[in-house]
Structure to design on (244 residues):
DNA sequence: CAGCATCCGAACGGATACTG
DNA sequence: CAGTATCCGTTCGGATGCTG
């Protein structure tokens, strides 16, 4: 009996890139390699613990790469792995849908905003 | 100051369709309207409490519709709303990616399986 | 059949302090 | 700068029992 059984494809996807932070991290890594501190500044709400933890898991699942520069002070760069690159299209669509969703909620009178859009319609 | 601030589009998306169960529920509703019991049987691992809770949230966010038939025994049908339909493409891709991911892990010697594929390559 | 309420353990996730 | 370890409150989520 397999140790892990999924009933539908999306379950496996969520298992790897699901959660509160992973999609955000991956979205930032879509366009560039980033150092730990850069990611931390790009995602101000995340705690240092969560950031490291999520990066470790993404690395373990082969989605991102972690390159350590042996120097003082330390320097570590994270980037999408070739396999992680297969997610960029989906990540892009997830970003766009979220932007549309916020617009929709604003039009609906909700007090919500989004700081960085990657698509400015019209 | 807005009560809800997102820094990037994908955050808003995750806020609405993120979590362990919502993507699975939505994937099932892509192709058909389903009754509560049908969903429950289609997702055997979910508890009744979680199923109801997630359905309520999806309904509240305008992703699905809930139609109650006034009869005994009760009958309730859930379906994607027109707005929810804007997610079908993304959901489809999430399913496919997960299926590929499982194949990749299997090829890597991991003891993992997926029961229902929607795309059987080759 | 569909749903609500409650209890309770597990996991998530933040704050802080410390290391190479 | 990057990362580890610990403490601890909050939320998640399962199990059970009950209602119309």
């Amino acid at each position: 009996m397999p140790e892990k059984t999924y009933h539908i494809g999306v379950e496996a996807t969520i298992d790897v890139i699901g959660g509160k932070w992973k999609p955000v991290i991956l979205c930032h890594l879509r366009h560039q390699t980033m150092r730990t501190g850069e990611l931390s500044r790009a995602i101000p709400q995340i705690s240092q613990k969560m950031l490291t933890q999520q990066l470790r898991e993404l690395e373990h699942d082969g989605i991102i790469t972690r390159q350590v520069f042996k120097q003082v002070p330390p320097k570590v760069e994270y980037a999408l792995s070739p396999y992680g690159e297969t997610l960029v299209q989906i990540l892009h669509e997830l970003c766009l849908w979220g932007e549309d969703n916020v617009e929709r909620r604003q039009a609906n009178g909700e007090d919500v905003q989004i700081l960085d859009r990657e698509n400015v319609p019209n």
